[in-house]
Fold each of these.
Amino acid sequence: MSSAPTILLTGATGYIASHTWLALLAAGFEVVGVDDFSNSSPEVLNRLAKLAGSAPVFEAADVCDRETMLAVFARHQPDAVVHFAAYKAVGESTAKPLDYYRNNVGGLVNICEVMLRNGCRRMVFSSSATVYGVPESLPLREDAALSAVNPYGQTKLIGETILRDLGAADTAWQTACLRYFNPVGAHESGSIGEDPRGTPNNLMPYVAQVAVGRRPRLSVFGGDYPTPDGTGVRDYIHVVDLAEGHVAALRFLLGGKESITCNLGTGRGYSVLDLVKAYEKASGKPVPYDIVPRRPGDVAACYADPALARERLGWEAHHDLDRMCADSWRWQSMNPLGFEAS
Ligand code: WQD
C-alpha cells in the first residue's frame, strides 16, 4: 500500500495536465486522471503509459457530473486535486458564454462540493494571466488590479473568488491559484504536446503548423503596438516548467496550512516576431507571415513578475525560448497531424 499522497487531476489528458501528470509521477506522487475527452484525445493515455512505464490510473468522467465524480472520489480518496478541466478559448467564450460559465464555474463548484463530501480540502486551481485584464504596469505582480475582458477570463476570476470565499468560510481549505502566462513547448520526447482542435487560437501551435506545412502562412495580429518591433509581447513559459510549478504548489499545500495565489511565468517578454525567428532557427523551416490588423481584445504587452513563486514555492522557470521552440518542433514534426492521426 503506497504512503505517497494521491493527486487527482481533472482535465488530465489536456496539454498542461498531461505534462503535469508525468511530473507528479516522477516526483513520487500517486496520480488519478479524470477527463471526458471533450477537448483532448484518449491517445494521450497510451503516450503517458509509454513515457511513465506504467498504465495511468484513469477515470472517464465529466467534472460537472456529480454522481460520477462522487464515485471516483470514493474509489480513490485523493489527498489533493489539481483542477485543470475548463474550456479556454477566449474568442469562443465571447460567442458561447453560457457554455463557459456552466463548464468552468459550474464544474469548479461541483468539484469543490464533491471534495468536501470526501474530506478533501486541498486544490491547485488552473488560473490565468488573463485575470489581469489590460495591465496598468509591467511586470505584473499578484497584487495588480484584476479585471476580466472576456467571459473566459471572467470564469477564472470567479474561480479564484470562489476559492477565496471557501477558504474564508472554512479555514481547513488550502488552495493554490496558479496564474499561467503563455504555456508553450512540449515534453522532450516529442510524444506529447499541444494539439488544439481546428484552427489554433494561440501563436505557438499556429506557427508550428505553418513550419510543418499544415498551414501556408501566419497572420501577425498587429504590427503597430507600442513594443520594440510593433508586435505583441508575451511571457512564454515552457509547459514542463509549468508542470514543475504544480508539483511545487502541491508540496506547498501538503507541507503547510496556507493558501497562495501566484504567477507562473518567466518574467521575460518576447514579441511575435521574436518567436517566429526562434521557431525558424529551431525547426530549420520558414514561417512566412503577413502583418494584419490587431485582434480585438489583445493587449500590447503582458509578462510576469515571478518573484512570489520563487520565494514561496521555491520554483522558477528554467527553459529559454530556443528550448521552447525546439521541443515544440520535435512534437509537431513527429506528430504532424496531432494525436488523432495515431
Ligand atoms: C500571443 C500573441 C497575439 C495568434 C491567450 C489567452 C490566455 C491564455 C493564453 C488560456 C498575441 C499574437 C496569436 C496568431 C498572432 N489561454 N498572435 N497570430 O492572447 O496572449 O493569451 O492564450 O489560459 O488566457 O488570452 O495568447 O497565443 O493567442 O497570442 O499574431 O495566429 O501572438 O496577437 O500578441 P494570448 P496567443
Amino acid sequence: MSSPSKNIESVLVESRVFPPDARASTGARIAGMAAYEALCKEAEQDPDGFWTRQARDNMVWTKPFTRTLDESNAPFYKWFDDGELNASANCLDKHIGTPVEHKTAIIFEADDGAVTEITYKDLLARVAQFANALKAQGIQKGDRVIVYMPMTIEGVIAMQACARIGATHSVVFGGFSAKALQERIIDAGAVAVITSNFQMRGGKELPLKAIVDDGIALGGCESIKTVFVHERTLSDWKRVEGRDITFAEALEGQGIDCPPEPVGAEHPLFILYTSGSTGKPKGVQHSTGGYLLWAKLTMDWTFDLRPEDVFWCTADIGWITGHTYVAYGPLAAGATQVVFEGIPTFPNAGRFWQMIEKHKVSIFYTAPTAIRSLIKAAESDEKVHPKNWDLSSLRILGSVGEPINPEAWMWYHRNIGHEKCPIVDTFWQTETGGHVITPLPGATPLVPGSCTLPLPGIAAAIVDETGKDLPNGAGGMLVIKRPWPSMIRTIWNDPERFKKSYFPEEMGGTIYLAGDGAVRSADRGYFRITGRIDDVLNVSGHRLGTMEIESALVAKTDLVAEAAVVGRPDDVSGEAVCAFVVLKRGRPTDAEARQIANELRAWVAKEIGPIAKPKDIRFGDNLPKTRSGKIMRRLLRSIAKGEAITQDTSTLENPAILEQLGQAY
Ligand code: WTA
C-alpha cells in the first residue's frame, strides 16, 4: 500500500476518471449519461407521473393505488397509500409461471463451505409453510416479530414469512447483546422471537438462543409469547416449556400454500434499530410499497441486473444492506444470489475470492472495511492474494457503508475488477431504504472516492445550517429536498424524535437531513461524503452512537464515575472507538489500567455487543472540561488521534490531566 501522505493527497485532489467501458454500457438499462439525465429530468418535471409509472411497472398491486404522494402531513409523507400489495408476493409469487420460477434464488454457502441451493418455487413453498407456522402460533397482521438469526436461508425465510402475513419484523444483528435485544423487544412490543440455537462463524459455534433467554430474563418482555428456534447445529440448547418451539415442530402439518396477506402500501414492513447521536437506538420504520419499489428499482438501476447475473451482497441481514440487498431487492428482481454464513477470513483471507470463482459471481457488493482488511492480508500472504483465483465472472463491483478511500478503490478496481468492472460506490443509510447517491455502471464516469451523482428522483443537495444551497467545492450538510418512495416513515413510538432528527425547523421542516457532511466537486458536481456531522461513529461500516457507548460505560457503576467516547481514524475499520474514563477509585497504575481496560471492554460487549468495544481506553482524574463544565470533545478527538494539542486550552479547568490521558490501553 502507498504511504499515508499519498493517501491524503489523493483524497484532496482526485483527478483520475474512469468512464464506463463498452462491456458495462452495452445493453445497460441506463446506458450513457444522456439516458441518466433524461430520467432525472422526467422525475423532476413530473414526479407524480414518474413514480406512478415506476410503481405500476415494477410492482404487483392487489389493489391499484390512485394517489402517488400525499404531502398533507409532511414530513410524514405517504406513498401510493390507497393501494394494497404484499411484499412477499412481490418477491416470490410474482415469478411463478415465468422463467424465474425454476431459477436458483439462493446459493447458500455455510461457514464450513457446504453449499445448498434453492429455487424460487421451493423458496416460495418454504416461506408459505413458515408463514402458516407463524399464524398457527397466533401471530397476526400488524404484530411485531424479532428476528435474531445468522445468515442462512432460514433467516431470509423468517423475514419473508413475516412479510407474507403482514407481521412487521425487526431484525436484530446476531452480534448484539442480550441487553440490546431486550431493549428492542420492549420498544417494538414484539410478540415472538425467531432465532437459531447457535450460529457458525469462523469455525466457531456461538450461542444465539441462550442470548434470547438472557435478554428476555432481563425483564419487561412479557409481550413475547413464542420463541421459534431453528436448529442450525446439532448441539443441545435449553428449552423453555410452553414458550419455545423448534422450526421442525412449528412446521409439522403445515401446508405449503399460504395466500399472501394484502396490506396497505404504508403498512410497516419492518422496523430496524440504528444508532443516532443521542439516546437509545431509533426504530427506523419502513413502508411496504415505497420501500419495495426502491429495493427493486435500485437492483435494476445501480446493479443493472441481468437475468444471468449471480449477485452477492456480503452484508448481514441484521443491517439495512442485508434487508434491501439480500432479503428483498434480489428476490423482487428475480436474481440468483449468494448468501454466505461465514466470515471473510475463514478458513483464510482468500474466502471471498474463492467464493466468487466457485459460484461465478458477476456482481459483488461489499464494504470498504472488508476490502481494506483483505488488502492487508493479501499483502502479507501471497497465498490469499486474489490473483490466485479466477475472478473473470465479475462484471460489476459495489461498495457500501462508509467512504471508500481512493487507494482501496484503486486496489479493488485493479485486483478484483481487473480494470474492467465499474465500481458503484453507493451512498445511503438505514433511513433512506436504498441507494440514493451512486454511480450507474453503464453511464457514470467514475472518480475514486466519490459516490458521484444522485439517482433519478433524489433531490440531494449540500446546504448550510439554514438550509441555503452551497456552491460546488464548499463543504456542508447533505440533505434531500424532496420526498422519495423508500424514505423512513417515522421512528417507531417516537414521531417527535423523527421530526427533530431528520427535518429540522431551521430548514423549514420538510427537508431530509442525512446527518453526513459532503462536498461537490467543482468540475463535475460529484458528491463526496466527508463523514457524519453528529456523534455517530462508523466502525467497520457499523453505526454506533458515542452516547450509547458512554451510557454503557457509566452503567458499570462499581468502577466508572464518568466517561466520554469519541472516534479516531483507523486504517482498517475506518473509525475506531476511543473511550476516556474517570474511575471512582482514582487513576489506576499501569498494571491495573490494563486489566480494568479489558474488564470495561468485556462489559461494553455485554451491554451492546462486541462491535462497540473501545479500541483505546484512556484514564484520567477527570475529563478535560471548560470552566463551565462542558467536556471538550474536540480536544478529546485530537488526543485520540495522537495529535499534538494545538487548540486553545486556556479555558480548560485542569490542564494537567492532558498529560494523564496520553497513555492508551
Ligand atoms: C455512511 C448503511 C460514504 C454514512 C447503508 C451514512 C457512506 C451511514 C456510504 C449510514 C458511502 C454509507 N460513502 N459514507 N458509500 N454508505 N455511508 O445506516 O455516514 O448503517 O450516514 O446504512 O454510513 O449507515 P447505515
Amino acid sequence: VRRSKETGQAEAYDTRALDRARARFAMETALRRAVEAEQLQLHYQPIHDLATGRIVAFEALARWTDENGSEIAPADFISVAEESGLIVPLGRWVLDRALRTLAAWDARAGAPLDVQMAVNISPIQLQRDRVPPLVAETLAAHGLAGNRLKLELTESALIADPDGSAETLQALKAAGVTIAMDDFGTGYSNLAFLQKLPIDTLKIDRSFVTGMMPDRDKIAIVRAVLSLATALGMATVAEGIESGAVSQTLSALGCTYGQGYHFARPLSAEQAYQLLVAPSN
Ligand code: C2E
Ligand code: MG
Ligand code: MG
Ligand code: MG
C-alpha cells in the first residue's frame, strides 16, 4: 500500500484498496457461515446430444444467496473460496449434493437413469484434498457406479502439478469416473501434455461458441478444437449455445454434445428431473 500524504489521489487509492480488502473479508466470513450451515444451492444445466437432442448429462452449478438476499455469482465467490481454502469443504458439499440428487432421481425413476452428473473440481481442491478416495466414498454412500460421474477440471489444475495430476486422474479412471477438460481454449493448451492424460471430453469454452457466427476466427478455433479432439479420441461439448443456428453449425462441424441457454438455463433439481423424464427426451 502506498502511503503518500502528498496527493489526495494516493490516499483515495489507499482507501479503495482497504475497502476492497474489507469487502473481501466480509464475503469470506459470510461464505464460511453459508458453507457450514449448508446454505448454498445447486442448479443443474442439461447437456444434450446435438444430433438427437437427448439429455446425456447435467452440470451441477453452485449458487449462493447471502444473508441480505443478494445473489452472488460463482465467478465472484469461487475465487474467494479458493483463496481462503473454503473451496475444500465447499467442493465436498457440491460433490455430495450432486450425487445425492442423482441417486434420488434414480430412486424416483425406479432404475438407474441413462444420465451422468458433471461436477466442477477446483484446482486447489485437486491439490489439497485426496480426491480419488473422496469420490469413491461419496459414490458408495449414494449407491452409484463410477461411470455416472464426470469431473470437470481446468487446464491450470493439471499443469500446476503434471505428475500428481496424471496419477490422480488414473485413480479416478480406475473407479470408472470420466474426466472433462473445462473451458478448453482459454488456457495453455499444452497438447503434448493433454495427450498423456486420460481425458474423455473437451469442453469448448463459451467465449468461442456464443458469438460463433458470423465470426470466422471463432469458427476456425472451434474447428481446430474439434479436429484435435477427434484425433485424440475425445468427445466434445460446446458450452454457451444460445441459438438454434449455433447448435446446428456445431453439429455439422462434428461437435457431439452441447449446453446453453438455447436448450435450458441451470434449473432446480425438480425442474431438471421433469425435463429428464419428459417424453420428448
Ligand atoms: P463453467 O464450469 O464453465 O460453467 C458454465 C457456466 O456457463 C455457468 O456459469 C453457466 O450458467 C454458464 N452458461 C451456460 N450456458 C450459457 C449460455 O448459453 N450463455 C451464457 N452466457 N452462459 C451460459 P455459472 O453457473 O455462473 O458458473 C461460472 C463458473 O463458476 C463455472 O464455469 C465454474 O468454473 C465455476 N463454478 C460453478 N459452480 C462451481 C462448483 O460447484 N465448484 C467449482 N469448483 N466451480 C464452480
Ligand atoms: Mg464446468
Ligand atoms: Mg465450462
Ligand atoms: Mg466456462
